[in-house]
TrEMBL record, chain B:
The lineage of its organism: Eukaryota, Metazoa, Chordata, Craniata, Vertebrata. It is found in: Apical cell membrane; Cytoplasmic vesicle, Secretory vesicle membrane; Golgi apparatus; Membrane. GO terms for cellular component: apical plasma membrane; endoplasmic reticulum; Golgi apparatus; transport vesicle membrane. One of its GO terms (biological process) is phospholipid translocation. It comes from Diceros bicornis minor (South-central black rhinoceros). Signal peptide: none annotated. The chain crosses the membrane at residues 245-267. Keywords: Cell membrane, Cytoplasmic vesicle, Disulfide bond, Glycoprotein, Golgi apparatus, Lipid transport, Membrane, Transmembrane, Transmembrane helix, Transport. InterPro entries: CDC50/LEM3_fam. This is Cell cycle control protein 50A. Belongs to the CDC50/LEM3 family. The keyword Electron transport does not apply.
Length: 1199, 282
């Protein structure tokens, strides 16, 4: 957002001083206004060219290089490369230049290709033809030549070429339908309205005669906000001023539907369209793994520098005796002698740096990138996460966060649409305290009279009946539903029966449910036509109401109203909204009864809405109209003024009744939540619903269980006591038992007897968050956090979701929001990883704020999914996403990172040691080719494959046993202890390689013909042992073997041997030296070399094997236990104990079938060609070998 | 057998001073056991950093491969041993320049009064591939002297490269002593194969037990850098020379593995019991 602000500023400055205004004036059809109006200021706007590409043909290379070298790692390697070019270094520039060049080229090709695609798309977009009006004629022009002020004609099913103000349409009522599927994914048709004064212009000539100016705000990216004003000049009268809102604006990218053609005037073009402004990328999220990786890199950089420093110092100490510095057999050149000492020392330092620079490998970045890239594809391909109902699978928007899914400690979930299906069903209504329940068996028929209604209370009197009908009418009228007819031209004389076929479309499923429910009670909403709403009442008569105003819904007011005029001329205001927002405005009606009923419904988990009305007399309405008109006309602060106006209008209401709508839980939502809680993840439900409703839902989805002790922190309670007392009392309760809790946690498997659930409502939360003068707020906040940390589940109800526009602005603290909560937890002391999941636009702020944002592709549009890092079709998929994918990817990437450091320690440490034996002369131990290819080809593929397909525990086990997730949270596998272990393992191995080779070479002959090996053979021996050790170490760590693992692992060893044979077997004419000639072959011809290789590999692998076996046997973690369990099954040892233990762990897990069946299905070996008939899951496995429900062999201790 | 001569009692100590040229010294030694099979005679140097970077790269492989252009215009890497008196040095570089040039002769002092010279074979000490592929004299049928025309000998050499040996297939760049020297050692203490003593027939040991003396033409100065020179006689099995390291290491690793195996077995046994109980209690 900041970025766009800066851009706007820059643009304004560039455009010149006169553009420095908050609004722009557009001259429709480029006609100057008549004299007397504002001075005509020709403004310059960009043309309609869309440029989404980053590079042009000319600037690609410099710009791309610049972009790439902005990455620290690339820059580091560039520096190393330059140092190698400039000074005399031990290794040739090729060794670091080639990998760098490779990496840069691959990235550049990838980016170039993507950019080329963008160019193609841009061109297609810019060159598609557009009809627009010039001098009363229709002209076709390329889209990119469109200018602000042009009048454009768009036909049905065409997309709008730029942001237009809707002037007129072919439909008589001046409306058109639009889908914004490509903008925000909402496929429902939205109605837009033409400007009142221009909707009569239907032909090109008419429109060309239009003389008007439009004033509107400067472009801004909010899709749903537009403020403007149109001045229509007539020859006779004063200019007519009309407000313009977002309902008059047609956005670029949207598609015209159900309307033959429309005319509009271009106001924002090209890069200033709202769509283009929304292109900007979201802020990059970085995973915890990446952070620790960077820390480790810094550690290694320090190691590198200190190594170089030590060697430089030692070199000069050692050289202080002249016969060592320059013995007679090895003299310096003149120029070398003349260089001054300091410069020499510095060059030496740099040379050592270059020598050891491989400790930070180029290829690690590439491998990590590739792992993430392919990994995200693997998630996308997961067929178990494919939802058949919607035909959609998971979508990965950010591949950088795969491993973060394995680190989640807090899940913030939206209730509606995420936990629940958002598939509303009208359950009951309460009118004046009488409860009506639509017939359960009612099959959508229009039921005559009250026979379709179960009267729970006594039947109403005549006035009650009147009220009842008013109530139904209110529900029928107070909404923003559109009717999607199959046949539009049928006209008003549509038969009542065909009314059933019509489909209601609305952005809010509650409304649809209500209208459909009322339809069953006898009132059918037919259509909205020419500002008249038509209802079919119980007597099959059509009632027409003129729609005067809509006071649209917003999440702050939490209610909406319509003002209608009935056929008899009475003006009503119907208001519908959440009980909390209606009750204060009510002056009449059986408030208490209805309130009781509402609360009763809420406890049952139903969503309640209250309906109220007010009769307006004509004068009142005039006042209202003026008020609204004034507010709508405002250019600045229109939102605020509108809200104020609404507030004034919606008061002194008469309560009619309440409705209750059921929102069913999504399938397996309870199962998922339970699993998440078992996995040690704290689940917070954030909802705008009533506390009782939300609590009921939470019980239903097992967020709270029977033994959960509920702590309430609600407004009611705070009213009784002071906030201070409540907070401290709660924290005392929690902390008293937390001792017991931790003890239970220690065993890791406790059933969490003391399980706390916290319920907090928005008002209380805002009290806690509110900064206070005496600074005690931070204290409150900490106490609150303390409580929250000890609760396994938190329910926040009555949350006012932060309004979209406020997302980017610093949020006022008094407004407690999802965003605020997420931020609160995120910034708390332990910096836990948070995940937010939601489906609606109101969850976007939360999704963007959390470490990982997951969007559910739901009914409320795709906005959440678009802004999320991951989008999944259903809430239940979160379980697999976290417990399986997250866990596996975390394990994989941590192993990847650690392994990379390990293998480079192995690689470089012998070099370091060798310096002590070669007079600190920076002599390399290995040949240049080996130096270059070690990280690129000899050891890169196995770890990449490992990091893609490794399953240290099988998928089924992971899913069945969520507590395994606890083993990896808090970055467990990348802690310092583990890191140091790996580093020391690397150092140990390096010592073994080097001194093994050293003792073998010292004072002895190793060939059978007495000939002597030189230094290159020494290096090659060390290198060979190293390549084998490092690869076999990976093989030891691999639990899950596929044929690909075997292929790549043994293949890369084979490749090493083949390469060495070839490299040493030929005199390469392009090399200036032939130092490797026959070295490898000679080495292999020597018996002791073979013996030494075998010995050294064994010795260097021994401690790791030992550690593994010991840890597994003595202090097994839950993960290892799970591994063991499976291993035992695999061995067909049907022992009772492991099974019993597992069953006792998971009483909920059912174990169908006999034991042997489980063995075969669980531990199905990776021989897919042998087992073709294993059902659907296995067919999946065949497609993606990584998803095989099978385990590899255990690490075999050879002790 | 160390013959550096730092010890004043050593017969070679007189050679430490540069004045005595040529310096010939003789060292007596006794073989307690007779050497069966082929015997390999090595010279060993210590504290000689053949693996110094400046040293290692100071050679021109294409010159050594007989490339005529590189012969007259050696690589820059050879500096400061690239040219002498405006003539290119062949073979150039520090390695070649510092070639080992002591001559060792071995005499058996038998029962007879006069010692017998042990015949030393000087071919077959270098890698076959080095001698036949990697190192080549400049092409042409003319005598070597002609081929090396326009070049000069390395500064420290006494004879030019084409006079290294009398035999034509062991002269010039393909002189095996030279090739052996050119394969730089990995460590500052190293040995290089000097001569072979071939077994003549099965009846007599190659070197019978007895007293020998080593006749050294002492040219190579090592005293300046605190170096040592040795002569080593060694027999070799199919597994190469005597290598205590491998044996000891194998025994050590083997016994450690065995020990660990036992320990782990015990642990495993215990663990099973404990884990079972643990599983039940949970």
């Amino acid at each position: 957002m900041d970025c766009s602000l800066v851009r706007t500023l820059v643009r304004r400055y560039c455009a010149g001083e006169e553009n420095w205004v908050d609004s722009r004036t557009i001259y429709v059809g480029h006609r100057e206004p008549p004299p007397g109006a504002d001075a005509y200021i020709p403004q310059r706007y960009p043309d309609n060219r869309i440029v989404s590409s980053k590079y042009t043909f000319w600037n690609f290379i410099p710009k791309n290089l610049f972009e790439q070298f902005r990455r620290i790692a690339n820059f580091y390697f560039l520096i190393i490369f330059l140092v190698q070019l400039i000074i005399d270094t031990p290794t040739s520039p090729v060794t670091s230049g080639l990998p760098l060049f490779f990496v840069i080229t691959v990235t550049a090709i990838k980016q170039g290709y993507e950019d080329w695609l963008r160019h193609k798309a841009d061109n297609a977009m810019n060159q598609c033809s557009v009809h627009f009006i010039q001098h009363g004629k229709l002209v076709r022009k390329q889209s990119r030549k469109l200018r602000v002020g042009d009048i454009v004609m768009v036909k049905e099913d065409e997309t709008f070429p730029c942001d237009l103000v809707f002037l007129s349409s072919s439909r008589g009522d001046g409306t058109c339908h639009v889908t914004t599927a490509s903008l925000d994914g909402e496929s429902s048709h939205k109605t837009h309205y033409a400007v009142q004064d221009t909707k009569g212009f239907h032909t090109e000539e008419d429109i060309d005669g239009l003389h008007a100016t439009i004033e509107c705000e400067q472009p801004q990216p909010d899709l749903y906000k537009f403020v403007g004003r149109i001045n229509v000049y007539n020859d006779l009268n004063d200019p007519v001023v009309r407000p313009l809102g977002s309902e008059n604006l047609l956005l670029r990218g949207a598609t015209l539907k159900n309307t033959e053609k429309i005319f509009g005037v271009a106001i924002y073009t090209g890069m200033e369209t709202k769509m283009a402004l929304n292109y900007q990328s979201k802020s990059q999220k970085r995973s915890a793994v990446e952070k620790s990786m960077n820390v480790f890199l810094i550690v290694y950089l320090c190691i590198l520098i200190s190594k170089a420093l030590i060697n430089t110092v030692l070199k000069y100490v050692w050289q202080s005796e002249p016969f060592r510095d320059e013995p007679w057999y090895n003299q310096k050149t003149e120029s070398e002698r003349q260089r001054n000492l300091f410069l020499r020392a510095f060059t030496d330092f740099l040379a050592f740096m270059v020598l050891f620079n491989y400790i930070i490998p180029v290829s690690m970045y590439v491998t990590v990138e590739m792992q993430k890239f392919f990994g995200s594809y693997f998630i996308t391909w997961d067929e178990e996460m494919f939802d058949e109902d919607t035909g959609e699978g998971p979508v990965v928007n950010t591949s950088d966060l795969n491993e973060e899914l394995g680190q989640v400690e807090y899940v913030f979930t939206d209730k509606t649409g995420t936990l629940t299906e958002n598939n509303m069903e009208f359950k009951e209504c309460c009118i004046e305290g009488h409860v009506y329940v639509p017939h359960a068996v009612c099959n959508g028929q229009v039921l005559p009279d009250a026979s379709g209604i179960d009267m729970i209370d006594s039947s109403p009197g005549v006035s009650g009946r009147e009220r009842e009908e008013l109530f139904f009418r209110a529900i029928c009228l107070c909404h923003t539903i559109q009717v999607k007819d199959d046949d539009e031209v049928d006209g008003p004389r549509k038969s009542p029966d065909s009314g059933k076929s019509c489909v209601y479309i609305s952005s809010s499923p509650d409304e649809v449910a209500l209208v459909e429910g009322v339809q069953r009670l006898g009132f059918t909403f037919l259509r909205l036509k020419n500002n008249y709403m038509e209802i079919l009442n119980r007597d099959n008569a059509i009632e027409r109401f003129e729609l005067l105003e809509i006071l649209s819904f917003d999440s702050v007011r939490r209610r909406m109203s319509v003002i209608v005029k009935s056929a008899t001329g009475e003006i009503y205001l119907f208001c519908k909204g959440a009980d909390s927002s209606i009750f204060p405005q009510v002056i009449e009606g059986r408030v208490d009864q209805i309130r009781a009923r509402v609360e009763h419904s809420a406890v049952e988990g139903l969503r309640t809405l209250c309906v109220a009305y007010k009769r307006l007399i004509q004068e009142e309405y005039e006042g209202v109209r003026k008020l609204l008109q004034a507010a709508k006309m405002a250019l600045q602060d229109r939102e605020k003024k509108l809200a104020e106006a609404y507030e004034q209008i919606e008061k002194d209401l008469i309560l009619l009744g309440a409705t209750a709508v059921e929102d069913r839980l999504q399938e397996k939502a309870a199962d998922t939540i339970e699993a998440l809680q078992k996995a040690g993840i704290k689940v917070w439900v954030l909802t705008g619903d009533k506390m009782e409703t939300a609590a009921a839902t939470c019980y239903a989805c097992k967020l709270f269980r029977r033994n959960t002790q509920l702590l309430e922190l609600t407004t009611k309670k705070i009213e009784e006591q002071s906030l201070h007392d409540v907070l401290f009392e709660l924290s005392k309760t929690v902390l008293r038992c937390s001792g017991g809790l931790t003890r239970d946690n220690f065993s890791g498997l406790s059933a969490d007897v003391h399980d706390y659930g916290l319920i907090i409502d928005g008002a209380a939360l805002s009290l806690i968050m509110k900064p206070q003068e005496d600074g005690s707020s931070s204290n409150y906040r900490e106490v609150f956090l303390e409580i929250c940390r000890n609760c396994s589940a938190v329910l926040c109800c009555r949350m006012a979701p932060l309004q979209k526009a406020q997302v980017h602005a610093p949020c006022p603290l008094s407004l407690a929001s999802d965003w605020g909560i997420v931020k609160l937890i995120k910034l708390s002391k332990e910096h836990p990883i948070t995940l937010a999941i939601g489906d609606g636009a109101n969850d976007v702020s939360m999704i963007l704020e959390a470490h990982v944002g997951v969007g559910v592709v739901g009914k409320e549009g795709r906005q959440a999914a678009r802004n999320s890092d991951y989008a999944i079709p259903k809430f239940k998929h979160l379980k697999k996403m976290l417990l399986v994918h997250g866990h596996l990817y975390y394990v994989r990437i941590s192993e990847l990172v650690q392994y990379f450091f390990y293998k480079n320690v192995c690689f470089i440490f012998p070099q370091f040691l060798y310096q002590f034996f070669c007079g600190f002369s920076q002599q390399t131990l290995y040949d240049t080719a080996y130096l270059t290819l070690y990280n690129i080809s000899f050891t890169s593929l196995p770890i990449l494959l490992y990091s893609l397909v490794e399953q240290h525990v099988g998928i089924d086990t992971l899913r069945r046993d969520p507590s395994l997730y606890r083993d990896v949270t808090k970055n467990a596998l990348l802690r310092w202890r583990v890191f140091i272990y790996w580093t020391f393992l690397g150092v140990f191995d390096a010592l073994v390689f080097f001194f093994g080779a050293y003792f073998m070479f010292e004072n002895t002959t190793v060939t059978s013909n007495g000939q002597i090996f030189g230094n290159w053979t020494f290096g090659t021996l060390v290198f060979t042992v190293m390549v084998f050790t490092v690869t076999l170490k990976l093989a030891l760590d691999t639990h899950y073997w596929t044929w690909m693992n075997h292929f790549v692992l043994w293949g890369s060893l084979l490749f090493y041997v083949a390469f060495s044979l070839l490299w040493g077997g030929v005199v390469w004419p392009f090399l200036s030296y032939q130092r490797m000639y026959y070295v490898f072959i000679q080495m292999l011809s020597s018996g002791p070399a073979w013996l030494a290789i075998v010995l050294l590999i064994t010795v260097s692998l021994l401690p790791d094997v030992l550690k593994k076996v010991l840890c597994q046997q003595l202090w097994p973690s839950a993960t290892e236990r799970a591994q063991n369990t499976c291993v035992r099954w695999q061995d067909h040892l049907p022992e009772l104990t492991p099974l019993a233990s597992l069953q006792s762990l998971h009483p909920s897990a059912a174990w169908p079938g006999s034991h042997s069946e489980q063995v075969t299905s669980l531990c199905w070996e990776s021989k897919e060609h042998e087992a073709p008939a294993h059902g659907a899951r296995l067919s999946l496995s065949r497609r993606h070998p990584s998803w095989k429900p099978c385990f590899g062999g255990p690490p075999s201790g050879d002790g | 057998i160390d013959y550096t001569g730092t010890d004043p009692s050593s017969p070679c100590s007189k050679c430490l001073s540069p004045d005595v040229t040529p310096c010939v010294c003789t060292i007596n030694f006794t073989l307690e056991q007779s050497f069966e099979g082929n015997v390999f005679m090595y010279y060993g140097l210590s504290n000689f950093y053949q693996n110094h970077r400046r040293y290692v790269k100071s050679r021109d492989d294409s010159q050594l491969n007989g490339d005529p252009s590189a012969l007259l215009n050696p690589s820059k890497e050879c500096e400061p041993y690239r040219s002498n008196e405006d003539k290119p040095i062949a073979p150039c570089g520090a390695i070649a320049n510092s070639m080992f040039n002591d001559t060792l002769e071995l005499f058996l002092i038998g029962n007879e009064s006069y010692p017998t010279l042990i015949p030393l074979k000087k071919k077959g000490i270098a890698w076959w591939t080095d001698k036949n592929v990697k190192f080549r004299n400049p092409p042409g049928g003319e005598p070597l002297e002609e081929l090396f025309k326009g070049t000069t000998k390395p500064v420290n050499w006494v004879k030019p490269v084409y006079r290294l040996d009398s035999e034509s297939d062991n002269n010039g760049f393909i002189n095996e002593d030279f090739i052996v020297w050119m394969r730089t050692a990995a460590l500052p203490t190293f040995r290089k194969l000097y001569r072979l003593i071939e077994r003549k027939n099965d009846l007599h040991p190659t070197l019978p037990a007895g007293r020998y003396y080593l006749n050294i033409t002492y040219n190579y100065p090592v005293h300046s850098f605190d170096g040592r020179k040795r002569m080593i006689l060694s027999t070799i099995s199919w597994m190469g020379g005597k290598n205590p390291f491998l044996g000891i290491a194998y025994i050590a690793v083997g016994s450690i593995s065995f020990l660990l195996g036992v320990v782990l077995l015990v642990i495993n046994h215990k663990y099973r019991n404990s884990s079972n109980t643990a599983d039940i209690t949970i």
